[in-house]
Write a structure and sequence with these properties.
The chain is an alpha/beta fold. The chain is 51% helix and 14% strand. It has helices spanning 12-22, 38-44, 66-73, 88-92, 103-115, 118-135, 138-154; strands spanning 3-6, 27-30, 48-51, 78-82, 95-99.
Length: 156
């Protein structure tokens, strides 16, 4: 198991130091990549992890992480450390959701996902892709926007 952390998050330096002090040689820290290079990276992955800060008031209406949609597009399962009122991973049955801020639960979920049979991981990944296409495709979002604009214009 290799955990690749890609990007320049605000906690990166602290995480690098902690991983080094714990001797976690299977954790790799990599630089951010441009959006157009992301698909090549997602194609290499077996699964993804998305973790948010435990700020339930911020996520009381749900989440909309662009990277989560990239993960769904890749048809891979996702471990989500979430405190959102609506978590798309759970809604899509696309992986495992654990409480935000619970590092032990997150580690356990990654291990549980790793141990799932290949077919089950494939099913979860396909669920995420299907959810993305059914609820967040550009034509669907454009239709929703047009409908809302029609309502606004008709009320004037």
């Amino acid at each position: 198991l290799i955990l690749r952390l890609i990007g320049e998050g605000t906690c990166k330096a602290d995480l690098q130091q902690r991983a080094q002090s714990l001797g976690l040689f299977s954790v790799r820290f990599e630089p951010a990549v441009p959006k157009q290079a992301l698909q090549a990276l997602t194609d290499e992955a077996d699964a993804f992890v998305v973790a948010m800060q435990p700020l339930p008031e911020l996520y009381r209406y749900g989440i909309s992480f662009n990277k989560l949609f990239d993960y769904f597009l890749a048809s891979r399962p996702v471990v989500s450390a979430s405190c959102a009122a609506h978590d798309p991973v759970q809604a899509a049955d696309a992986g495992i959701v654990v409480p935000a801020g619970d590092s032990l639960a997150l580690a356990d979920a990654i291990e549980r996902l790793r141990q799932l049979p290949y077919e089950e991981r494939q099913r979860l990944g396909a669920n995420g892709r299907a959810y993305l296409e059914a609820h967040h495709s550009y034509p669907l979002l454009a239709e929703r926007l047009a409908s809302e604009l029609d309502v606004l214009l008709s009320s004037q």
